[in-house]
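Hi R.,

Quick one: here's the Cupin domain-containing protein sequence you asked about.
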Amino acid sequence: MTSRDGMTSSGGMTSSGGAPSPGGTSFPGGTSVSRLSVYSGTCAADGLAGGTPHLHTASTEAYVVVGGRGALQTLDVRGPRETELVPGSTVWFTPGTIHRAVNHDGLEVVVVMQNAGLPEAGDAVMTFPPDVVGDPVRYREAATLPAGGSREETERAVARRRDLAVEGFLRLAEAAAAGDLEPLRRLYADAVALVRPNVGRWRELWERNVAEQARRTAAVLDALEGGDAAHLAGSALMESPPEERWGMCGHLRAHDVTRPTVR
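And here's the predicted structure, written out as C-alpha cells:
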C-alpha cells in the first residue's frame, strides 16, 4: 500500500477545514471493495475457466455480479456446492468456505471484503495439495508470483498456481462428497498454522480500521442522543483510485480504502 496525501500523524483523515470526518478513513462498515474480471484461461485438471480456489481464515467475502455468466463452486463441512452467477447475483461466504469462481462468459464481479486490510495482508490460503499446504516454505514458493516479470511470465505463473490449487480442491471435494471430511479438516489446521504468525499484525490493522470505525459510530450515537450536531461539521468526501493487480480469482481493480484522499 502506498501513502496518500491527507493522512494525519495518527492515521486519521481530516477534511479541508481541519475537522475530523465522522466516519474516519474506513470504507463503510470497515470493508474493502474491488472490481474483479474472472480469469478466462482454462484449468488443466477439469477444463473449466476461472480462478484459484482458496479460503479466508478471518474475513467474509461477498460477490455482486455485474456482468457475464459463471458459477461459484464452494466447499465446507456440508460438502461441495455450485451456485449460478448471473448479473444481479449477490452471494457471500464466511471464513473457511473454499470458493472457486468459474467463468462461463465474461464474468465481472464487484467484491466486498470484510475487515479491510486483513485480506490484503494475507488471510487467504490456497487449496494446494496437503504436502504443499503443510510446508510453509513450499507453500510460499507455490503461492508467490514472480516480481518484475513480463506479463506473459506472470500469466504462466498465475496458471500454474491455479492448476495446483484446483488439483487440491478437486481432491477435497471428492473426499467430502464421499463423506470423508478429514482432508478438509487437515487443510483447516494447516491454514491456521500458516497464518498464525501474522495474527498480531492483523489485530493492529483490525483495531485501526474496523474496531475504530465501530467506536466512532458509538460516539456519534452518543452525540445524537445528546442533541450534539458538532460531528456533522466534519463531513467529507473521500476517494480511492483503482490499482491494477493480479488476484487469485482474476484481474483486480482494487482500492486502498484504508488510505483515501479527501475531495
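Residues 90 and 164 are 28 Å apart (CA to CA).

Cheers,
M.
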